[in-house]
Amino acid sequence: MLVVSKERYRPSMLNTIVLFKDHWYYYVHRSVYDQTVLLADQFGSAEELAELVGGTPVNREAADWFYEHAPAPLRILAPFLLLVEEELEQDMEMCCGALHVITSMIHVKHFIQKPLEIRKSVLFSSAVKEEYEMMWESFFLSAIPRERAEPSPSLQAPLPDSMETEQLFRPRDSCGSAGRGAQGDAMHREATEAEKAATRNLLR
């Protein structure tokens, strides 16, 4: 799976890695990501890999453009755009859509190890556009937009300040002030202050 969008989503699919570059979010399945890591480690340049991939030169410019603008290690997939028979636009969504279809059909790491005759027989038509649009639709339907995934700060109840907390937990005077006398009032105030201090220490 390889999906790209300018909006941030929280994928519902397991093993999905999110990359970001130049205002684009890339949602890549872990298996595809691991293959790109291995290919990037094995090949020093896209040209070296392109010799093994084969394909047609019609999308050479699109492949070069994708290599320059896509994040590493995802950009190492650029030579596989040469497997598309008809010309692709230099558009990130179009290129990623084509690679989404290609990586869902072939294991790119194993593909270059196949005999030359088999590699020459693998080509993709312009129908990749319709195919990736349908595949991406299921991803966007199941993914959660970022603004829905994170609660709004306005919905979070504010914590009371120290004065409100103190008043909230202030002990009630169950005996009343009448008939206590000066000594009783002093003892009551002392006990009340002690309880308030203990309450403040508990809430810290």
Give me some keywords for this one.
single chain; 204 residues; mainly alpha; 2 domains; 3-stranded antiparallel sheet; globular; disordered C terminus
Helices, strands, pairings?
Blueprint: E1 2-5, E2 9-10, E3 16-21, E4 24-29, H1 30-42, H2 46-53, H3 60-69, H4 92-105, H5 108-111, H6 116-120, H7 128-142, E5 144-145, H8 146-149, H9 162-168, H10 181-203
Antiparallel strand pairs: 1-4, 2-5, 3-4
Helix pairs in contact: 4-7
What does this structure look like?
With 204 residues, the protein is mainly α. It has two domains: 2-149, no CATH class; 157-203. The chain contains ten helices and five strands. It has helices at residues 30-42, 46-53, 60-69, 92-105, 108-111, 116-120, 128-142, 146-149, 162-168, 181-203; strands at 2-5, 9-10, 16-21, 24-29, 144-145. Strand 3 and strand 4 (24-29) form a beta hairpin. The longest helix is centred in the C-terminal third of the chain and has 23 residues, at 181-203. The relative contact order is 0.12. Mean pLDDT is 81; it is low at 154-180 and 198-204.
